[in-house]
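Worked example 2:
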Amino acid sequence: MSTTTAGGQTAGYMFDNATDEAAHQLRHLGEILDPGTRQTLREIGLGPGCRVTDVGAGAGTLTAWLADQVAPDGRVTAVDLDPRHITAGPSVTVRAGDVRRMELEGSQQVIVARLVLMHLPEREQVLAELVQALAPGGVLVVADWDCTWRDMIRRSPSPHATQLIERFQDALLAFGESRGADMGWAKRAPEAMLRAGLVDVSSRIESRSWRGGTGICLLHRSNSIQREAQLLDAGMTREDLTELRQVLMDPELILSGYLMHTTTGRRPTTA
């Protein structure tokens, strides 16, 4: 079964791990997101012996850290549509597949789904299946960006640079929505997790700023390369994209990342 949007495109993640640019993009994502996710996982009690599933594992940087934390007797399963960038190991199982159409191993003490559910039209169905895969007392960690928050430019080299960044954001997010992404889903995750039967639900909402040539600016530059064809279709020119990439490397630029909502909930220990 495949899912299509009203426009006829196959729904799902906006980017492709098989592209030449993917390794750079995934590395930037890990550098931006891993510190906050690690903090959350420490706070929920991740430790030796835990059974963990990392959904949408990407480059596997979080998977590798998880494996270190649950050693020597724990186990990590990394799930991704295309897991070519993830390294298996003695305590790491790598599974290729679409989380919408695969059965996850049950009795997991922690499940992490980062930048996954916002992309899936079937997000609440998948959420219910993630909850079922938890052991009683297990914790689900759902982390997604709120891309409806657009007050990101802290300092711009010029009004023209600001305009280029805004046009890029408009075009990129519209492409994601055409594939079924919900750019504001992160704000509704707590309510959805409560409806799914989780308890002790709470969210951390955070962002930080990055100068041109670092962090989120490098990610945006990489995204502009991965989705150049779609940006051109949306009306940007090759000259626009060349200039945009120069702006994103300019240390005079300061951008905040999207607001990251990291929501946790625990499966009750009794029915």
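The radius of gyration is 19 Å. The longest strand covers residues 134-146.
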